[in-house]
Design brief:
With about 130 residues, the protein is mainly alpha-helical. It has a two-stranded antiparallel ribbon. A hairpin with a 2-residue loop joins strand 1 and strand 2.
């Protein structure tokens, strides 16, 4: 995922959070963050900062995070999300789905999950 993808995700989850709060004003903040997928922003923003500090260009996502993006986008339609946010969400979901299918080796550096900027060359050990 790129920084631009993260910004798109922030717009989508913020919109989802606003829509859910409008539909259920009594929803607890933790439940609101979970249902809207806004929790992803906390996790991925920290990972993006760590990746940038390590000089990495990509922000890795775990499988359950990709599934959470899918749920947010699909659910946004059910609670009357803005059409533009829904379209933008589907575009992001398509991109994340394609990226998830590409072979990539994540590396843990100092407890931070990162993506290498390049694939290993022939004869170079795999980072896994």
């Amino acid at each position: 995922m790129t920084v631009q993808d993260l910004q798109t995700l922030e717009r989508i989850t913020s919109h989802a959070r606003t829509q859910l709060a409008r539909l259920d004003a009594d929803m607890a903040p933790d439940a609101l963050n979970a249902a809207s997928g806004y929790w992803l922003m906390l996790t991925l923003s920290e990972r993006a900062g760590a990746a940038r500090a390590l000089g990495r260009s990509g922000i890795p996502m775990l499988v359950d995070e990709v599934e959470a993006v899918q749920a947010v986008v699909l659910n946004l339609q059910s609670y009357e999300g803005d059409d533009l946010a829904v379209v933008e969400g589907h575009e992001l979901l398509n991109r994340v789905t394609v990226l998830a299918q590409l072979p990539c080796y994540a590396v843990e550096i100092g407890g931070v999950l990162t993506l290498p900027d390049r694939e290993p060359t022939a004869g170079e050990p795999s980072p896994n």
